[in-house]
UniProtKB/TrEMBL annotation:
It comes from Meiothermus hypogaeus NBRC 106114. GO terms for biological process: L-valine catabolic process; thymine catabolic process. SUPFAM superfamilies: ALDH-like. The lineage of its organism: Bacteria, Thermotogati, Deinococcota, Deinococci, Thermales. Keywords: NAD, Oxidoreductase. It comes from the Bacteria. Residues 25-486 form the Aldehyde dehydrogenase domain. One of its GO terms (molecular function) is methylmalonate-semialdehyde dehydrogenase (acylating, NAD) activity. CDD domains: ALDH_F6_MMSDH. Pfam families: Aldedh (PF00171). Signal peptide: none annotated. This is methylmalonate-semialdehyde dehydrogenase (CoA acylating). Gene3D superfamilies: Aldehyde Dehydrogenase, Chain A, domain 1, Aldehyde Dehydrogenase, Chain A, domain 2. NCBIfam families: MMSDH.
Length: 506
């Protein structure tokens, strides 16, 4: 008699609509992998147009009462949510690591940076204050109020499944909007847990909804007449598409795209410090960060030789393995396909004229079942090579050698991406010159990953951002509200008369 294989029931990740889990009924779903083992660990429902519409209808209904909720109550809910996220840091981090693969300390860092945005949103009563001009004309006062937009949507990438949603929904909700989140289908669970925590914090049902899915859900978000604004974070081709389609349909859109972040190292830099920074920023989270340093530009051959030696020495000590394991510093990549794509850049680099100094494909871990690749270092990388022009989004660091500071800055400015950049030097004048002329949205001076704190805003330039307003912080509040200017006069019959002239203020 044949022995029957035991049936393994896979976890099913569903939607969160109207304050409860709702199983999808479209019949379509995706695979959620465990990148550390290479095994499927769950399925994720993919929403149909009708299911997306149902979530928007719930959010639209919830908006009617949510926008009337006093500011103090909204702030109180944000405070409670802040405490719940704080108490559940470890649990959120584990959910991230299981599906994304990054290490637990890295995932805890993600939660902490997301939490900052919730803390910022607790100040919403202050943030929504408008201006008031008394006596703009005789007996006339003029003032500005900022009002929520209605239902707004967020579409988020795989690489920060908790932080990027918090970048968006904390401010959006605190401003009085209701929210529909379409998380990455690759790691969809953390957002459902955040939805539960929001409910526990006292957020009324329907204010925050999660719709899992793919292009079908995204396209419906872009055309749904009741969605007033769309925040997107992801790759540049999709960001451009989201911006063009969303704005064509009359929506307010902020769409953040990909990056190629350059780190310039001048000859006077502290080589040890620059190497520490380059290694941390290039290989942290396996290079799957939009603010990762993927390209070092070194001024002078001697500095380049010294820096490469210092980087190699540090690379040899990085512990690569499953993110859940104690002591591991770098986890796997998100999928097998992505790992292979990253590996193809290393394969092609010598054909393009670059030198492979360290080849991550040779690391024994690259042969395991998980989606692993060791760390790689390429030298003599130049514009025109694919390994320079493209965002690789993996643990591959390129080094370019130039003769002058001017040449280095020109490289940064001529690259189509302009998310973040950094300079390493002891020369304050050179650093100031760099800050003045470099074309990127976020600049680090001896800081390799200059992600702004939550009370500033996050955004790149050029092909790294489509739209006007950056994400979170003061610009986030601006994005999720619209201004209304009121000009008011209280009746004073003694001064009233008919006057057909154009109103003047003096
Ligand atoms: P992605 O563009 O593939 O996906 C992002 C979102 O868009 C996901 O929710 C996905 O489901 C959806 N999507 C994918 N293809 C689509 C299509 N054809 N039509 C409609 N929707 C689609 O990005 P990713 O691989 O999840 O994330 C990595 C990218 O995100 C990198 O390029 C990285 O630089 C970028 N990123 C940028 C920032 C930033 O702040 N600028 C932050 C994090 C990540």
């Amino acid at each position: 008699m044949a022995v029957k294989e035991p049936e393994i029931t896979l976890k099913r990740v569903s939607h969160w609509i109207g304050g409860r889990l709702v199983e999808g009924n479209s019949g379509r779903s995706g695979i959620v992998w465990n990148p550390a083992t290479g095994q499927q660990q769950a399925t994720v429902d993919f929403a149909s147009v009708e299911e997306l519409d149902a979530a928007v209808a719930v959010a639209k209904e919830a908006f009617k009462t949510w926008r009337q909720t006093p500011l103090s109550r909204r702030a109180e809910i944000m405070f409670k949510f802040r405490d719940l996220v704080d108490q559940n840091r470890r649990k959120i981090a584990e959910l991230i690591t299981l599906e994304h693969g990054k290490t637990i300390p890295d995932a805890l860092g993600e939660v902490a940076r997301g939490l900052e945005n919730v803390e910022f949103a607790t100040g919403i009563p202050h943030l929504l204050k408008g201006g008031y001009s008394e006596q703009a004309s005789r007996g006339v006062d003029v003032y500005q109020i900022r009002q929520p937009l209605g239902v707004v949507a967020g579409i988020t990438p795989f690489n920060f499944p908790a932080m990027v949603p918090m970048w968006m929904f904390a401010n959006a909700i605190a401003c009085g909007n209701t929210f529909v989140l379409k998380p990455s289908e690759k790691d969809p669970s953390p957002s459902l847990f955040l939805a539960e925590l929001l409910q526990q914090a006292g957020l009324p049902d329907g204010v925050f909804n999660v719709v899992q899915g793919d292009k079908v859900a995204v396209d419906r978000i872009l055309e749904h007449p009741d969605i007033k604004a769309v925040s997107f974070v992801g790759s540049t081709p999709i960001a451009r598409y989201i911006y063009e389609t969303g704005t064509k349909n009359g929506k307010r859109v902020q769409a953040l795209g990909g990056a190629k972040n350059h780190m310039i190292v001048l000859p006077d830099a502290d080589i040890g410090m620059a190497a520490d920074a380059a290694v941390s920023a290039a290989y942290g989270s396996a290079g799957e960060r939009c603010m990762a340093i993927s390209q070092v530009v070194v001024v002078g051959d001697q500095t380049a030789d010294e820096l490469i030696a210092a980087i190699r020495e540090r690379m040899s000590r990085i512990k690569v393995g499953p993110g859940m394991e104690e002591g591991v510093e770098m986890g796997p990549l998100i999928t097998r396909e992505h790992r292979d794509k990253v590996a193809s850049y290393i394969e092609n680099a010598p054909k393009e004229g670059a030198t492979v100094v360290v080849d991550g494909r040779q690391d024994p871990i690259a042969q395991s079942e998980g989606f692993f690749l060791g760390t790689s270092l390429l030298d003599h990388v130049k514009p025109g090579m694919k390994c320079y022009d493209d965002e690789i989004f993996g643990p591959v660091l390129g080094v370019a050698r130039v003769k002058t500071y001017e040449e280095a800055v020109r490289m940064v400015n001529e690259h189509p991406y302009g998310n973040g950049t950094a300079i390493f030097t002891r020369d304050g004048g050179a650093a100031r010159q760099f800050q003045f002329e470099v074309e990127a949205g976020m600049v680090g001076i001896n800081v390799p990953i200059p992600v702004p704190v939550a009370y500033y805003s996050f955004g790149g330039w050029k092909a790294s951002l489509f739209g006007d307003l950056h994400m979170y912080g003061p610009e986030g509040v601006q994005f999720y509200t619209r201004a209304k200017i009121v000009t008011s006069r209280w009746p004073d019959p003694s001064t009233s008369k008919v006057d057909l002239g154009f109103p003047q203020v003096r």
